[in-house]
Amino acid sequence: MLTGDKLETAICIAKSSGLFSKTDNIHVFGNVQNRKEAHTELNILRRKSNVALVMTGTSLDICLQYYEEDVAELICQCVAVVCCRCSPEQKAQIVNLLIRYKKPARVAAIGDGGNDVSMIQAAHVGIGIDAREGKQASLAADFSITQFHHICRLFLVHGRFCYKRSCALSQFVMHRSLIITIIQAIFSCVFYFASVSLYQGILMAAYATAYTMLPVFALVVDQDLSSANALTYPELYKELSKGRSLSFKTLCLWILASIYQAGVIMYGALFAFDLDMIHIVAISFTALILTELIMGISLLFYAGSLLILDDVFDRQFILSWMFILKTSAITVISCLPLYILKLLQHRFSPSTYEKVS
């Protein structure tokens, strides 16, 4: 807590807000005037563990002048830290200190007054409270709230959902682009790198926009669990720091899934069923769309376009039972193993949110 209040007031606020608990060992950092005194006080603090630190702005200036890195290390080891009699510049200085020495941690700053603006702008995430002191903080912040207790919902619900949605959306977009690229690469290899594109302009444009836009919108509003559960189990928020939703492992899994599905779709259309070029395009592209949109309402839009694009699809062929059977078989082969693996993972090694949802 960074405040301009005097020491006694700052301690009372910390206790009443729950920042300091009744069992915390509160260590009041001595008023230091030079480097030697700062070194002595820092050594005293270093020998203690699990303490709540209270420090004045004057002492903070001296310590940061000579022992900047030590201060960053020690304040992160404390249970809680209160810096009183801080100027707006000192608040921003502490935020920059944590950003500089505690990578890759992300720093959030919360303030409600004009003297908190520099601190809010210096942090990775600035949160302004629209309070009696004015709107300067809320206007300068990344997020604005009206009550301090809304912070729990901001982090545990909105923050978690935004992170999960961003991870899912980025990986879906990557998979969507990668799978059609691999299909084109396989097609080029099979036909001796002829300068011919498997899917012509309108199909490529529609695939990246109209055909796959609803899954994107669905991912934007997706929730893996209810807001009530997200608030009830704050441990779920801590899982995000492990980066399991978007990591090198998940990237490799998506790449492998794209390679497998692209191979099944392309080789299935080429060798298992038909060698007529227009039929290859119809079968492979329909199987691709079914693979991407198997649970989406966009299928209705695609089904209608099959009947409209006469220059791309053979209408007589796509209305036949043979076309339906061929595309269904390829779709099942490309999707079923992945769904089976997902069900097995859910059954034998569920994630934390799956256990509570």
Total helices: the number is 18
Oligomer: single chain
Q: How far from one another are the termini? A: 35 Å
Could you say which overall geometry the principal axes of the C-alpha atoms support?
elongated
Q: How much is the average pLDDT? A: 84
In the sheet with the most strands, the strands line up as: 1-2-3
Q: How many strand segments?
A: 6
User: Helix proportion of residues, in percent?
Assistant: 55-70%
Low-confidence stretches: none
The largest sheet, given as strand count, sense and whether it forms a barrel, is: 3 strands, parallel
Number of domains: 2
Strand content: 5-15%
Order of helices and strands: HEHEHHEHEHEHEHHHHHHHHHHH
Compute the CA-based radius of gyration: 29 Å
Class from helix and strand fractions: mainly alpha
Keywords: ATP-binding, Lipid transport, Magnesium, Membrane, Metal-binding, Nucleotide-binding, Translocase, Transmembrane, Transmembrane helix, Transport
Subcellular location: Endomembrane system
Protein name: P-type phospholipid transporter
Catalytic activity: ATP + H2O + phospholipidSide 1 = ADP + phosphate + phospholipidSide 2
Structure at a glance:
The chain is elongated and about 90 Å long. The two termini are 35 Å apart. The chain is mainly alpha-helical and 357 residues long.
List the helices and strands and how they pair.
Blueprint: H1 7-17, E1 25-28, H2 35-46, E2 51-56, H3 57-66, H4 68-77, E3 80-84, H5 88-101, E4 108-111, H6 117-122, E5 125-129, H7 136-140, E6 143-145, H8 150-190, H9 201-208, H10 213-220, H11 227-232, H12 235-238, H13 248-273, H14 277-292, H15 298-308, H16 315-318, H17 321-348, H18 352-356
Parallel strand pairs: 1-2, 2-3, 4-5, 5-6
Helix pairs in contact: 2-3, 4-5, 8-13, 13-14, 13-17, 14-17
